[in-house]
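Record Transcriptional regulator, 74 aa.
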Amino acid sequence: MAKESKIITNLKSVRESKGMTQQELADRIGMRRETILHLENNRYNPSLEMALKIAQVFGLTVEELFELRRKEGL
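=>
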């Protein structure tokens, strides 16, 4: 049986450190502000394309923004 994983992000702290609002980031990558909110609260896993676009906005790698962790208890 495969272990389940969850993507954890530090997107909120990176975005805030750059002085960018959720709406500004959403506009830059062509998404809704609510999607950014869900990403920041680890309620939504980004597609690879979305993760790459966000990383490019901040000049970072995907790995610097998102981390794959195994869910606890599995």
